[in-house]
Design brief:
five-stranded antiparallel β-sheet, 5 strands
Length: 105
């Protein structure tokens, strides 16, 4: 089992961060069919719900974000379901960490 820097298992670290009101996420550039896309994934806990954020946009279209970005915010009652959704849209759960830069929500 992999541990975080403080020795805590990664999933426990994520759960504790979400339960303390922190947001977790990451972004990355991926190439698909010779086109580069920016992907962004995030999750937060609000009251008894988990809110996920997914965004995908062709990197060359960032200047017209409103017209081309695919953005989805979804609410789940169970963390398991929220993480399963993020995996389904391409997120690697172990990459979720403190969000640097602009918060998606």
């Amino acid at each position: 089992m992999v541990s975080s820097a403080d020795g805590e298992p990664p999933m426990n670290h994520l759960i504790n961060a979400l339960n303390s009101g922190k947001r977790r996420g990451y972004d990355e550039i991926r190439t698909s069919e010779s086109t580069q896309y920016l992907y962004q994934y995030a999750i937060k806990k609000e009251k008894d719900a988990y809110i996920t954020y997914f965004m995908k946009i062709e990197e060359s279209k960032l200047d017209v974000f409103e017209d081309y970005a695919e953005e989805v915010m979804t609410t789940f009652t169970e963390l398991r379901d929220a993480l399963q959704y993020l995996r389904r849209v391409g997120a690697e759960i172990e990459k979720l960490g403190p969000i640097k830069g602009t918060l998606p929500f």
